[in-house]
Amino acid sequence: MDPVFTLQWPEFLIAEKLQKLFALKKKKGEDYSILVPLSRQEKGIDLAILKTAQSNNPSVVTLQVKASRTYLLPPPKRKGVERYKYYTWFNCFKVPERADFIILIGLFAPALEQTLPVSEKWYKDCSLLFTREEMNKFFKDCKTVKGEPEKMFGFGFNDLSSIILTRGDKDRTKKEYKDFLLENRFMKIKEKLSS
User: For residue 166, is it within any domain?
Assistant: First the structure.
């Protein structure tokens, strides 16, 4: 066993973000803890959230985190071609049965023209929250233009006001995913912890 414990940067960011979100929505008598598996062989679980209440009946949800860098594409050569400022790129994966939720995170720099040194807090993230069932349905519908199962998928966005599925949508209908932002959906985790 390695004597040093490390946590991937995207998982750390999500843990920190969840800690802040749950602290804001805390009710009297409820405590939430973010847990991290110590073993790197813990397949399908990157984080867990433990809820303890006055009843001493704790509940737990598990999360899988999948990360992507953001990519910048060159300006289009043809008129009328729409490009987004940022693109994420994920490989399709088998949804782990042990994960209650899956979070897709893309890290990006909000002001590309800035040349002065920045801290890690300057970078932003686009984090989408899916239940296990929603992620399975997403992959079932994730197809190439020819209708074949897609091997990769991705999202494009200029800012967090609109997040569009750019790869994995057979009909190229520009499916909107801003409602899946972690900030907009984290109450689903809270509901699962209360059920």
Answer: yes
Residue 102 lies in a domain: yes
CA–chain centroid gap for 29, Å, is: 29
Please give the tally of structural domains in the chain: 1
Burial 150-165 (b: 16+ CB within 10 A, else e): beebbbbbeebeebbb
Q: Which two tokens stand for residue 77?
A: 């050569």
Domain span at 114: 9-194
Q: What percent of the chain has pLDDT over 70?
A: 85
**Residue 4: inside a domain:** no
Residue 2 lies in a domain: no
Q: Name the pTM for this structure.
A: 0.88
The mean per-residue pLDDT over the stretch 10-37 comes to: 84
Lowest-confidence pick of 45-59, 106-120, 122-136, 145-159: 106-120
